[in-house]
User: Fold this.
Amino acid sequence: MRRIAVYPGSFDPVTMGHLDIIERANRIFDKVIVAVFHNPNKDPLFTMEERVDMLGKVLQDFDGVEVDSFQGLLTDYLKQKGAGVMIRGLRAVSDFEAELQMASMNKKLAPELETVFMMTNTKYAYLSSSLIKEVASFRGCIKELVPDDIVPKVIERLKEKGKLIDKEEC
Ligand code: ADP
Assistant:
């Protein structure tokens, strides 16, 4: 039986912390579907299509990794894809409470599915997409924190949205 896992998230934008989890999950599962979640409660920097496109490019050389997007219940999406596992990354204790709550709800909705938690690489423990956006908006350097091709895209989009504070480029 092929072990298929789904790694859901906003990926707005994808960071080196996400990539590290994907690389490690790819060694454990036969197939990893990185699924961009459409969250109607969030106002993302990038559209869902742009995030799928960026992830697709960053992950193009990863055999066994597929990029997709979904709306609605994650448990329904897993069933539709024939996946038995959802992967979540854990950084700090602060992630734990929300993740426990979500994993418990998903267990109630679909007892046959499992949530597998992977500990962050300590190198990236402080990284989050929102912190990347905040730092970049103040012209802080985000190189090595997101894939190289994503750096100018973040800066460009912040500029378009009038969220970039003027200062020298890094
Ligand atoms: P969400 O809005 O679903 O939290 P994110 O894109 O912020 O989406 O994160 C997707 C998943 O990746 C979550 O499980 C999150 O905990 C995990 N993650 C985010 N950043 C890191 C990191 N630096 N190290 C490990 N896991 C991470």
Notes: The chain has a mean pLDDT of 95. The pocket of adenosine-5'-diphosphate is lined by residues 9-11, 15, 17-18, 21, 88-89, 91, 95, 120, 124, 127-129 (CB under 6 Å). Strands lie at 4-9, 31-37, 65-70, 85-90, 114-119.
